[in-house]
């Protein structure tokens, strides 16, 4: 089974990296602010009541900073173009602009020691993340100085840029109370048609095609937004973070009623060989389990509906989450994808020692009925 992650790993690892991509990230000698030559991305972020200090709101903010390297995009595109042509017979030459847009972040060089300073609307002081390491910085920042301790709805934040830099990168903060419901959903083949099991179709869906939702799922999520009273939606995918702009556009438009932060894998161009090994040794299970731990750390008092599919490791990951966290997981819904391993043996192993009432395996013709499941009332199917 090929996952999106190992597909990209394959593609990137096969491209002549000495030509196309830098081997090491850049580490300036001193800390510095984001400047006009840098690319900065602040991911949409969840905000939560600090479990250790109730009444204080935290926002878990993650940022990426890289140097813009326009000269890398050409070699990257021609490498990928040649590889896809040779291995899959896929010709992307007529779509290079679009492929270039989708892969643009792969052509940035991660930068260390960069300070990212943000303002969140309605909150007094600017906050600064710890300096980037390998291009990334992540920290819980306090929103204690905000006018309303816990903002009721999504609020916009801005990255503070240096003088003369007219760009104004923004991000959305999604606050949610300590109780109530949440939804953790996979993206590929759960809410978006990605063809994870078919390399050619996966490459097309990821690089070229306009993204298409799994039929009926936007309506199901919209109805959950209502029946679960604005649950915190969090999308977790093992795709590399470089695909974030593409996936975020898709979720925030097609799934506007169930918009939320997207957690993606921290794949840096410096650790491709590690990632190859990691992916081959069930890295997706470990990564997704770690993301569920991360969500549990923020919202230990919520109940989550987990939504995934049978192409990768969602059944195994969600089964483990229920064994570990009990009623923190209200239900696990798994879409049975044609061609995936949908055997009783697989699901029995994945959900061993798990209350069967929490598990709902569904086929595509059962998707519309999901909207009628009374999850708030304790039902899973
Ligand atoms: C992302 O990966 C880089 C390089 O391996 C590492 O330095 C950094 O700490 C990681 N960041 C996060 C948020 O995991
Ligand atoms: C946020 O950034 C996007 C992309 O750069 C831009 O299109 C949008 O207008 C910005 N929104 C606000 C409210 O500044
Ligand atoms: C942020 O806070 C949560 C909840 O207390 C905790 O689980 C997590 O480890 C913290 N993350 C960081 C990066 O400090
Ligand atoms: C399906 O998964 C089960 C349990 O992991 C495994 O024993 C079986 O060999 C798999 N079948 C196929 C066709 O991959």
Outline:
Residues 181-336 form the Phosphatidate phosphatase APP1 catalytic domain. This protein has helices at 4-14, 17-20, 70-88, 96-103, 199-207, 217-227, 244-254, 272-280, 283-298, 314-325, 344-350, 367-370, and strands at residues 32-33, 38-42, 45-49, 57-68, 108-110, 114-115, 117-120, 127-128, 136-142, 155-159, 170-175, 181-185, 232-240, 262-265, 303-309, 329-335, 359-362.
Describe what this molecule looks like in 3D:
One of its GO terms (molecular function) is phosphatidate phosphatase activity. Keywords: Signal. Residues 1-20 form the signal peptide. Residues 181-336 form the Phosphatidate phosphatase APP1 catalytic domain. This is DUF2183 domain-containing protein. The protein has 381 residues and is an alpha/beta fold. The protein folds into two domains: 31-70 and 108-175, Immunoglobulin-like; 181-370, Rossmann fold (3-Layer(aba) Sandwich), CATH 3.40.50. Helices cover 32% and strands 23% of the residues. The protein is built from twelve helices and 17 strands. The protein has helices spanning 4-14, 17-20, 70-88, 96-103, 199-207, 217-227, 244-254, 272-280, 283-298, 314-325, 344-350, 367-370, and strands at 32-33, 38-42, 45-49, 57-68, 108-110, 114-115, 117-120, 127-128, 136-142, 155-159, 170-175, 181-185, 232-240, 262-265, 303-309, 329-335, 359-362. Strands 2, 3, 4, 5, 7, 8, 9, 10 and 11 form a nine-stranded mixed β-sheet that branches. A six-stranded parallel β-sheet has the order 14-13-12-15-16-17, sandwiched between helices. β7 and β8 form a beta hairpin. α1 (4-14) runs antiparallel to α8 (272-280) and α9 crosses α10. The chain is globular and about 55 Å long. The relative contact order is 0.15. It binds 2-acetamido-2-deoxy-beta-D-glucopyranose (4 copies). One 2-acetamido-2-deoxy-beta-D-glucopyranose (NAG) binds next to α11.
């Amino acid at each position: 089974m090929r996952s999106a992650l190992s597909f990209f790993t394959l593609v990137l690892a096969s491209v002549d990296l000495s030509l196309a991509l830098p081997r090491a990230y850049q580490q300036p000698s001193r800390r510095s602010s984001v400047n006009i030559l840098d690319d900065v991305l602040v991911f949409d972020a969840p905000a939560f009541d600090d479990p250790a200090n109730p009444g204080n709101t935290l926002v878990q903010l993650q940022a990426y900073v890289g140097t813009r390297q326009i000269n890398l995009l050409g070699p990257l595109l021609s490498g990928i173009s040649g590889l896809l042509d040779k291995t899959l017979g896929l010709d992307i030459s007529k779509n290079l602009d679009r492929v270039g847009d989708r892969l643009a972040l792969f052509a940035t060089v991660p930068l260390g020691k960069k300070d990212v300073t943000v303002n969140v609307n309605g909150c007094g002081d600017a906050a600064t993340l710890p300096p980037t390491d390998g291009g990334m910085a992540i920290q819980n920042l306090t929103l204690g100085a905000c006018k309303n301790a816990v903002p009721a709805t999504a609020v916009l934040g801005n990255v503070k840029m240096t003088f003369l830099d007219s760009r104004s990168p923004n991000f959305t903060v999604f606050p949610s109370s300590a109780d109530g419901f949440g939804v953790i959903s996979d993206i590929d083949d759960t809410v978006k048609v990605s063809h994870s099991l078919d390399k050619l179709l996966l490459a097309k869906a990821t690089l070229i095609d306009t993204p298409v939702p799994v039929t009926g799922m936007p309506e199901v999520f919209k109805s959950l937004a209502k029946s679960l009273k604005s649950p915190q939606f969090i999308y977790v995918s093992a795709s590399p973070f470089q695909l974030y702009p593409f996936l975020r556009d898709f979720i925030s438009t097609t799934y506007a009623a169930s918009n939320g932060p997207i957690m993606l894998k921290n794949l840096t161009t410096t650790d491709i060989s590690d990632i190859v090994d990691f992916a081959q040794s069930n890295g997706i299970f470990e990564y997704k389990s770690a993301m569920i731990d991360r969500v549990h750390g923020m919202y230990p008092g919520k109940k989550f509906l987990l939504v995934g599919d049978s192409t990768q490791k969602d059944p195994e990951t969600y089964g483990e989450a229920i064994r570990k966290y009990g009623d923190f997981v209200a239900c696990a819904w798994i879409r049975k994808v044609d061609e995936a391993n949908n055997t009783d043996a697989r699901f029995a192993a994945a959900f061993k020692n798990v209350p069967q009432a929490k598990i709902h395996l569904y086929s595509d013709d059962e998707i519309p009925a999901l909207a009628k499941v009374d999850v708030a009332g304790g039902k899973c199917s």
